[in-house]
Design a protein that fits this description.
about 400 residues; alpha/beta; Rossmann fold; Dihydrodipicolinate Reductase, domain 2; 2 domains; nine-stranded mixed β-sheet; five-stranded parallel β-sheet; globular; binds nicotinamide-adenine-dinucleotide
Length: about 400
């Protein structure tokens, strides 16, 4: 290992709750953190099943005395250690994010939490306040904000390249819940179908939250009011699987969102189209190294990461030359790269610049949960318009 890499790994450590063998996103987080040797994993409670935690932790080379039976013990013991972790990564199902994050924040440990942040706005507000009071940082892993091209889109829109934004059309279709998969032993589907574990909604919380976050990230638009319809189109399902939302933004722009888990033929089709008075942008997550840019009365252009000049900030997150696709892992790694650089700067006492916070924050998490809650509220009142 080079001296530079060793310095990077030795300066920050982290623990993980969730992400045991058989889980999905925890392993993605670990690989993403490993991409830039952003931090070293030193402890964990990877599952409610201690045998799984032991097996997962042992395979990752973690000392047995730092493999915990439950997250409460982990927060308690880690909070007291002189070499305590710099941050904890929470990759458990939705409803457990709040109690786990709360406990680690109370023990003085920074938090990385996957989305949705919590299941109620009140919980999210409490965590934001707790982190502020204890001088701690929360990072929300809204993955897609890590793509260099998404950052470039944001920088173009903020610079006014599209003129005044008039309309946004965003969608996130998937097909994986086209049948009652939650009634099989499918690990990820079964908790998503259970309101006690997933929260008030399934598809808005799971993928609608990515739409809300990406549009907000790329345009800076703030929602003034919305009208939502949460449908359950597979018979026997407890929660929504297909959702449409009309949105009015402050300032007059309009939006239309659609997320679906019953859209046969679609994998992870997050797509954002932004229409302004001077031009438009069309970006799709499954082809994240490119986007279409069109100025009024000009030919359509395809912008390519690596080939075309991106904004300096976006460029700094690009890793390989054009035509070598960067994807999901790199997007995740970019979030960790920014978050851990920020923590290192804080630790060293160096001055923090605005661009150091180039990762999704607790405020983004709170906005996401508020959006989810308002969609449910509207849908329960026959899609009435509700103010944010
Ligand atoms: N950012 C993204 O793109 C993205 C993608 C997928 C999932 N997610 C989010 O990540 C979270 C996890 O999703 P998943 O698909 O990996 O779920 P999963 O079911 O595959 O994994 C969850 C893990 O948490 C463990 N767990 C549950 N309760 C626990 C507890 N109290 N203590 C310790 N471990 C516990 C389970 O044993 C399992 O290992 C969800 O909130 C989901 O919305 C985000």
């Amino acid at each position: 290992m080079s001296i530079e890499l060793r310095a990077a790994t030795e300066s920050l450590t982290y623990g993980m709750v969730g992400g045991g063998q058989g889980a999905f996103i925890g392993e993605v987080h670990r690989k993403a953190i490993g991409f830039d040797s952003s931090a070293e994993l030193t402890c964990g409670c990877f599952s409610r099943d201690y045998k799984n935690t032991l097996a997962t932790g042992t395979s990752l080379g973690i000392a047995q005395d730092r493999l915990y039976k439950n997250y409460k013990e982990m927060a308690e013991v880690e909070g007291r250690r002189s070499d305590s972790i710099d941050f904890v990564v929470i990759v458990t199902p939705n409803a457990s994010h709040y109690p786990i994050a709360k406990l680690f924040l109370e023990r003085g440990i920074n938090v990385v939490c996957d989305k949705p942040f919590t299941v109620t706005t009140a919980q999210a507000e409490e965590l934001v306040e707790l982190a502020e009071r204890n001088n701690l940082t929360i990072c929300l892993t809204y993955t897609y904000t890590g793509y260099p091209i998404a950052k470039h889109v944001r920088d173009l829109v903020v610079a006014g390249e599209l003129g005044d934004i008039r309309f946004v059309n965003a969608e996130y279709p998937q097909e994986w819940l086209s049948t009652l998969l939650e009634e099989t032993d499918h690990k990820q589907a079964s908790w998503r179908g259970d309101p006690d574990i997933t929260g008030l909604t399934n598809s808005v919380g799971d993928i609608g939250s990515h739409i809300e976050n990406m549009v907000s990230f790329m345009t800076g638009l703030k929602i003034e009011r919305l009208s939502a319809r949460l449908d359950t189109l597979v018979a026997g399902r407890k929660l929504d699987d297909n959702v449409t939302v009309m949105v009015d933004y402050h300032g007059g722009a309009r939006g239309l969102y659609w997320c679906s888990q019953i859209a046969v033929g679609n994998d992870n089709g997050l797509r954002v189209r932004i229409f302004g008075s001077k031009g438009s942008i069309d970006w799709a997550q499954e082809n994240p190294n490119y986007f279409n840019l069109c100025y009024l009365d000009k030919p359509l252009q395809r912008i390519s990461r690596g080939r075309d000049a991106l904004s300096p900030l976006a460029q700094s997150f690009s890793r390989v030359p054009a035509g070598h696709p960067e994807g999901y892992f790199e997007a995740f790694a970019n979030i960790y790269k920014a978050f851990t650089s920020y923590l290192r700067k804080l630790k060293s006492g160096a001055a923090i610049e605005v661009e150091d916070k180039e990762f999704p924050t607790a405020a983004d998490g709170l906005a996401g949960v508020h959006f989810i809650e308002k969609c449910v509220e509207s849908s329960r009142s026959d899609s009435a318009w509700v103010k944010m």
